[in-house]
Design a protein that fits this description.
The structure is a homodimer.
Chain A: H1 6-17, H2 22-29, H3 34-42, H4 46-55, H5 58-65, H6 70-79, H7 82-89, H8 94-103, H9 106-113, H10 120-128, H11 135-138, E1 144-146, H12 152-162, E2 171-175, E3 181-186, H13 187-192, H14 199-202, E4 210-211, H15 216-226, E5 230-234, E6 240-245, H16 246-264, H17 279-306, H18 308-313, H19 321-344, H20 353-381, H21 386-416, H22 426-449
Parallel strand pairs in A: 1-2, 4-5
Antiparallel strand pairs in A: 2-3, 5-6
Helix pairs in contact in A: 3-5, 5-7, 6-7, 6-8, 8-10, 15-16, 17-22, 19-21, 19-22, 20-21, 21-22
């Protein structure tokens, strides 16, 4: 599937070495996709990388760099000749530049901003005023704007004039003299229209727009739900900021899913790709939660010491401790995971909370019954006395129902408190289920075993 | 953000009730997006739903139904008049029809297939021959095909002729007489081109294509990596099957992330939205893994019974059991989650496995040291004798390193065995870590406490 092969790499290497005129290089790389060029660049050594980026037309180098992380983009841009850096930077898409600048030290950003031409520089400064990870900072400013009284033919002529430098092309946005969006037209509709038709006669006026300060996760859900290639982003003052395109949305959806998955697995989210993340970063992201969970879990020691007499009398009680606490943790984890994912993709909303808790309680109870029966059988198999078997089974019955319900309540309360529901990770739910499970266990032991 | 309001709903209700001529209804709904229409439909009662779907132009009804699950699509199509059903069905996009038919009973599918016109019926049958969740079954067949010798002007004229019925429009695909893809051209390039240019002079010939039998997850990664709006799908015989569009890809990426998250949370993946899933389905998806984990976890009972004498001698040993096994489980879960997610998004590939295990072992060891120190302190705080404190700390040291390594090895071996790595859920890793942790604990107890 990949169009990169070793022979191509070798050909490019030898061209770069011999300092051949760029024409041969363009011929060789002209048909490659930017993503393939980025893979190729990765396989060259440092000197060759700079030669290639200098030899390619700036717009090609810009697209290629778009596939790298900000840190690497900066490494390239900082080492190229200033003229080349400026040419490439001015060809990069606005959302890529904003992401790069947000990741750099302010002094580095200032150096690079100085290389931008107006009005691109002003657009970038405007976009950087939106919070990171908002729709405004993700938007692409390179879209086609038109006026309502233009005819289809006039608009096509305008496209041919500005077209080669505009990045986003599937829709034409009709703005009034204040820069407010009044209509939208797809390129398809434009082509199908009679050449003399005015845009206002055919444009769509009921618009789906994204507020610029909306969080990227919710903006991504909007694009995904409407099945559109792009949505216009509008500032609080009603002005068109740019377009949120579907390729940016895909990255957001993957990032947000990764964030949820890491949190659910009990570590802080790691934002960089696996092999580009240092071991030190992994250590920091993991040790925090390990310690938090350790402190929470340490209370189980107090609970057990509190029941030391019971444990000394019936040492067999301890045989079931890992089984009980883990089964409770598993049931709680299942609920929390299902509920948290449904919240992330917008299937569960604010008003649904009571309904969700009630549903999960019912499912929890239904799961608890067969599990209690299995637990009783297991206790008998281990040769335990009947009252111990009943104690263990009764504990499973109650604790599965309780932890399933807790698995729904905890993320919901977390969301109300403004936390990411995904912090209610399986390790955290397991920890809570452990403490609750042990308390229930020893109460049943007292009750049913006469201790 | 939503353009649906109660007054609109009431207006539509009263129009439907009075059986007004459809013109008024079209006027009222003309500007709505299909997604908004689908929300509106959900808020009507059954009789009104059928009236609205009948009154709307078939292509609007088809787009609206595209936002429903197959079960609901069938409920609508089965109850509408046959002529209306046929008209709507023939306007639905091919991937939606394929998904619907794959979800139905074969007899229901046959009834609906009979309503399709040729050549759509043949295309649908062709597409259904690809495995479910493959690129071929997801592809849209409604794309624009052209010939290499057509001029730009001719092609635009062709677009105007076929355009209104074609679904996908951003690229023009140039096929030879055997139906093999020889080039591609964006609509943008077509508009910018001189009217007399032949397509073969401007088309891109080095093509990124997706094999029709490729799994949807890998196909989605390709589209995401290349940042393209669509990729052509090619059959094993080299023929063009259709195009994989970015809106289908978004759904795939969300679905695959949901599947991973559910598995990682220790339940079978639930494919339907939360509130559209019956409690019975949740029960079935969850009970399987609860039982599997219960059986695996039950061995801890045997391990503990094996060390009954030790536990009777030093009942304080049992105080640390939940803390030890859970901390081990947490470390293992962290590693497994980070590794599994990196595998899912293609950051870790087949050849990287040894490198990954080695990295995770190093991180595990680094985490183990501070955690062991904290554990020793905790044991002292509980008033344990020093040798018990050392036993617990030594166990934490070894078990965090071991379970971190296991958290990397298990999903990797699973992948080699052809399993979804995400089945190595946090509950499963926790269970394995429990058994290993207890064995290490009692060995250290014997060694350090002279038991």
């Amino acid at each position: 599937m990949s169009v990169i092969d070793i022979s191509l790499l070798e050909q490019i290497r030898s061209l770069l070495e011999k300092q051949e005129p760029p024409a041969a290089l363009l011929e060789l790389t002209g048909d490659l996709q930017p993503y393939d060029l980025s893979n190729l660049l990765t396989n060259l050594d440092t000197a060759e990388q700079f030669l290639l980026l200098t030899a390619l037309p700036p717009e090609r180098s810009a697209e290629t760099l778009g596939h790298f992380e900000p840190v690497e983009q900066y490494r390239f841009l900082d080492h190229l000749e200033q003229g080349v850096t400026a040419a490439i930077l001015n060809q990069m898409s606005s959302d890529t530049v904003v992401e790069l600048f947000s990741a750099l030290h302010p002094l580095q950003t200032e150096q690079l901003i100085a290389l931008l031409h107006e009005p691109f520089r002003r657009q970038i400064r405007d976009q950087m005023s939106y919070p990171e990870n908002s729709a405004g900072s993700l938007a692409t400013v390179g879209y086609i704007a038109a006026r309502r009284w233009w005819t289809a033919d006039q608009t096509l002529a305008h496209l041919r004039k500005v077209g080669s430098t505009t990045e986003f092309y599937s829709y034409i946005y009709i703005l009034d003299h204040l820069g407010e969006l009044v209509g939208v037209l797809s390129l398809r509709q434009l082509i199908l229209a009679d050449p003399a038709t005015r845009l206002e006669e055919i444009m769509l006026q009921k618009l789906i727009t994204v507020p610029a300060d909306l969080d990227q996760e919710q903006a991504a859900q909007m694009v995904a739900q409407y099945d559109l290639t792009a949505l216009p982003v509008i500032s609080r003052e009603g002005k068109m900021v740019g377009v949120l395109t579907v390729d940016d949305i895909i990255d957001v959806i993957e990032e947000e899913a990764t964030e949820d998955i890491h949190l659910l697995g009990g570590s802080e989210p790691v934002e960089t790709p696996y092999f580009k993340t240092s071991l030190g970063t992994f250590f920091r992201k993991r040790i925090v939660w390990l310690l938090v969970l350790f402190v929470a879990e340490a209370f189980t020691g107090n609970i057990l010491r509190h029941y030391e007499v019971l444990l000394t009398q019936v040492v067999a009680l301890s045989f079931f401790i890992p089984l009980l606490v883990d089964t409770a943790g598993n049931a709680g984890t299942q609920t929390a995971t299902l509920v948290i994912r449904a919240m992330s993709v917008g299937e569960i909303r604010g008003g649904d909370f009571l309904k969700v808790v009630w549903r999960e309680m019912k499912v929890g109870l239904t799961l608890a019954l067969p599990m209690a029966a299995v637990t009783f059988l297991r206790a008998m198999m281990l040769g335990s006395p009947t009252n111990l078997g009943l104690t263990v089974a009764a504990t499973i019955l109650v604790i599965i129902a309780v932890s399933s319900t807790l698995g729904a309540i905890m993320p919901i309360i977390g969301k109300r408190l403004g936390l990411d529901p995904a912090v209610f990770s399986s390790p955290l739910i397991t920890t809570v289920a452990d403490a609750v499970g042990l308390l229930i266990y020893f109460q049943f032991a007292r009750l049913l075993m006469g201790l």
